[in-house]
Design a protein that fits this description.
By secondary structure, the protein is α/β, with parallel strands linked by helices. It folds into two domains: about 1-220, Spore Coat Polysaccharide Biosynthesis Protein SpsA, Chain A (Alpha-Beta Complex), CATH 3.90.550.10; about 245-340, 3 Solenoid (UDP N-Acetylglucosamine Acyltransferase, domain 1), CATH 2.160.10.10. It contains six helices and 29 strands. The strands form seven sheets. It has a seven-stranded mixed beta sheet with strand order 5-4-1-6-11-8-12. Strands 14-17-20-23-26-29 form a six-stranded parallel beta sheet.
Length: about 350
C-alpha cells in the first residue's frame, strides 16, 4: 500500500528547534521523528511512501539516502515552490492509482490504520478523514458530521463562539485516486480549505472516522516536550521499544557515568554521554549523543539534543537545549526555556 507524508512545512511554531532542521527530522528520543512515522505506517501494510518536501529537504534526503532505512521504500517529491497539502499530493497523481493514505509529518499517533481502511471501504467513501477529540478546537480544523459519520462541513480554526463540536481533523486521510480528479493541476491547494469542500460541493461521499487513539501534534514546543514525557512514562506507544523505559536509566553505548550520580527515571542517555560527579538527573529526561554534564549539575525533566555541554553546578529545569549549545558554569535555566543550537548561555 502507498502513503504520502506531508513534510514540507517550515515548522515555524517550533523555532528555534527547526532553524536548521525540518520538522519531520526533529529528534524524538534520539531518533528522527520521521522514523517513528514510517515504522507506524509499515506496521499497517504501507510499503511505499512519498514525501512531499520543500523546507530544508536536503536534511531528509541526506539522512535516509537513496536506500532508505527500514522496510519502506521512499520517494522524494521536492517542490520548487510550496504547493500546499493537497497540491503536493495532486502532483503525485500518476503514482497513486489505488486507495492510499495521506498523513501529516508532524502527527504522532497509534491510530489503527487497518481499521480505518476497513471503515473507508465499508462506507464506500471517496475520502475518509480521521478525527480526534480536543478540548479547544480553535487551533485546529473543526469537522461537523451527521449521525452516520458523513461530513457536512469544515470550519478552520473556529472562534470560541462558533464551536459546535470538539472533533477536529487529525491529519490522516484515506483517499481514492478519483478524489484527486477534483483538484486542478500545478496550483497551491489545501485539503481542508480547497479539496475536501469541493468534494462535498460535488456530493461525493466524504466520511469521518472518530478515533480515541493517542494523538499529538508535535508542532509546538509544549507538545514536543509532552510527547517525550508521554513515551518515557509509557503513556504513548514507542515503535522501537517493546516496554516503556518507566523508572529506569537507559544508557547508550560508550557512556561514562560517575558512580555517585543521582538518577530518578525515566532517563534516556544517548551514545557517548559523559556525566560528572554528583550530577542529578531527574526524569522524564532525554540526553542526545555526546552530551557532557559537569560535576554537581542538575538536569530536571528536560530535553538535551546532541553535543550539549552543561557546566559544573548548573541547574536546567524543564527546558530544551539545542544541539551543540553550551551552558556556563553555575547557570540557572528556568522552566520552558528553549536554547537555540550553537548557543553559549
Amino acid at each position: 500500500m502507498k502513503a504520502v507524508i506531508l513534510a514540507g512545512g517550515k515548522g515555524s511554531r517550533l523555532v528555534p528547534i527547526t532553524n536548521s532542521t525540518p520538522k519531520p527530522m526533529i529528534s524524538l528520543l534520539n531518533r528522527p521523528f520521521l522514523e517513528y512515522l514510517l515504522a507506524h505506517l509499515h506496521s499497517h501494510g504501507v510499503d511505499e511512501v512519498f514525501l512531499t518536501m520543500f523546507h530544508l529537504s536536503d536534511s531528509i534526503v541526506n539522512y535516509f539516502g537513496v536506500a532508505p532505512k527500514g522496510k519502506v521504500s521512499l520517494t522524494y517529491a521536492i517542490e520548487n515552490s510550496p504547493l500546499g497539502t493537497a497540491g503536493g499530493v495532486k502532483a503525485l497523481e500518476d503514482n497513486l492509482k489505488n486507495t492510499f493514505v495521506v498523513c501529516n509529518g508532524d502527527i504522532y499517533t497509534d491510530l489503527d490504520l487497518t481499521e480505518v481502511l476497513n471503515y473507508h471501504r465499508q462506507k464506500k467513501a471517496i475520502a475518509t478523514i480521521v478525527l480526534t477529540h480536543v478540548d479547544n478546537p480553535s487551533a485546529y480544523g473543526m469537522v461537523e458530521t451527521d449521525i452516520d459519520g458523513k461530513i457536512l462541513r469544515f470550519v478552520e480554526k473556529p472562534s470560541p463562539d462558533n464551536i459546535t463540536t470538539n472533533w477536529v481533523n487529525a491529519g490522516t486521510y484515506i483517499l481514492e485516486p478519483e478524489a484527486l480528479g477534483y483538484a486542478p493541476d500545478a496550483v497551491s491547494l489545501m485539503f481542508e480549505r480547497d479539496l475536501f469542500p469541493t468534494l462535498l460541493e460535488n456530493q461525493q461521499p466524504v466520511y469521518s472516522y472518530r478515533s480515541d487513539a493517542y494523538w499529538v501534534d508535535v508542532g509546538s514546543p509544549q507538545n514536543y516536550k509532552k510527547l517525550h514525557d508521554d513515551i518515557l512514562l509509557g503513556y504513548a506507544p514507542d515503535n522501537f521499544r517493546t516496554t516503556p523505559i518507566s523508572s529506569g536509566l537507559i544508557k547508550g553505548t560508550g557512556c561514562k557515568v560517575a558512580g555517585n550520580v543521582r538518577s530518578v527515571g525515566p532517563v534516556l542517555l544517548g551514545n557517548g554521554c559523559v556525566i560528572g560527579e554528583e550530577v542529578e538527573l531527574i526524569g522524564p529526561l532525554v540526553l542526545g549523543d555526546n552530551c557532557k554534564i559537569g560535576a554537581g549539575a542538575s538536569i530536571i525533566r528536560s530535553i538535551l539534543l546532541d553535543n550539549v555541554f552543561v557546566g559544573e553546578g548548573s541547574k536546567v529545569t524543564e527546558c530544551v537545549l539545542g544541539s551543540r549549545s553550551s551552558i556556563r558554569e553555575g547557570s540557572r535555566i528556568s522552566s520552558g526555556t528553549i536554547i537555540p543550537e550553537d548557543t553559549i548561555y
